[in-house]
């Protein structure tokens, strides 16, 4: 796991605690942590040639097969580091999308994750095609075989994205129909929101007896779960357990899950669950509020 403090920012190894939890949630085993400092990112390797070569030697000695950055890096930087280190390089956004793909169970959730994956892939095509140097000096008006293949791949991904959006549109219309039916029932709608692994599912189970999965794991809940709850006075409320938020939640995931998030935000009451024992609780509250505002 790797983080880079830029422009004099203060970071230490503890900053990677959340990335450590994400890595474990993805089913991987963390080996080591590295925090580097630079005045600005290196355009080619992000961390600079000297640091890259030093770390490459360390990674080989430790038998590391995957390096995960705690922040975004460009597709070119990612490709260059993979070539230099001869191993896979990933970053926070890809890791979160991968966790979401493992957790999605409903048809809508799977479609939303697939949309986020394709949107992310479309921005990383230069990394996926290592032969693009052939674009320079291509023959004819098309610019060469590398450019032709890149255009073809981009068109294929764009076509898949369009088809997914059509399918998601149908699912969203069905969701709106069900939501209007719940609204006509007159029951108060309550959404449990909060940072991932804050205890929302545990509270949901205690309130409703639903038996939802509640484990010490980031993004254990992905698909919203709704139950009716009868209060002591006889009134009914509808309680929903929702996906947790996290700092720097990838914009593509926010966009792909917009329908789910909108339904959450449109509840009559948002009950913000906070882990009071977390030393980062104030920053976590701010992250949740930022996603809701988006």
Short description:
This protein is α/β, with parallel strands linked by helices.
Provide the CATH architecture of the largest domain.
3-Layer(aba) Sandwich
SSE string? EHEHEHEHHHHEHEEHHEH
Silhouette: globular
Strand order of the largest sheet: 6-7-5-8
CATH homologous superfamily designation of the largest domain? P-loop containing nucleotide triphosphate hydrolases
Q: Strand pairing plus helix content: what structural class?
A: alpha/beta
Biggest sheet, open or closed, and with what strands and sense? 4 strands, mixed
Briefly note the CATH topology name of the largest domain.
Rossmann fold
Q: Roughly what is the average pLDDT, rounded to an integer?
A: 83
> In angstroms, what separates the terminal alpha carbons?
29 Å
Q: Please work out how many helical segments DSSP would assign.
A: 11
What fraction strand?
5-15%
Q: Please tell me the total number of domains.
A: 3
Rg over C-alpha atoms, rounded to the nearest angstrom: 22 Å
Task: Give the helix proportion (percent range).
Answer: 40-55%
| Low-confidence region ranges | 130-144
Overall strand count: 8
Reading off the top of the CATH hierarchy, the class of the largest domain is best stated as Alpha Beta
Fold and architecture overview:
Strand 3, helix 3 and strand 4 form a beta-alpha-beta unit. The chain is α/β, with parallel strands linked by helices. It has 11 helices and 8 strands. The longest helix has 40 residues, at 145-184. Strands 6-7-5-8 form a 4-stranded mixed β-sheet. Strands 1-2 form a two-stranded parallel ribbon. It has a two-stranded parallel sheet with strand order 3-4. The model is unreliable at 130-144 (pLDDT under 50). The protein starts with a strand and ends with a helix.
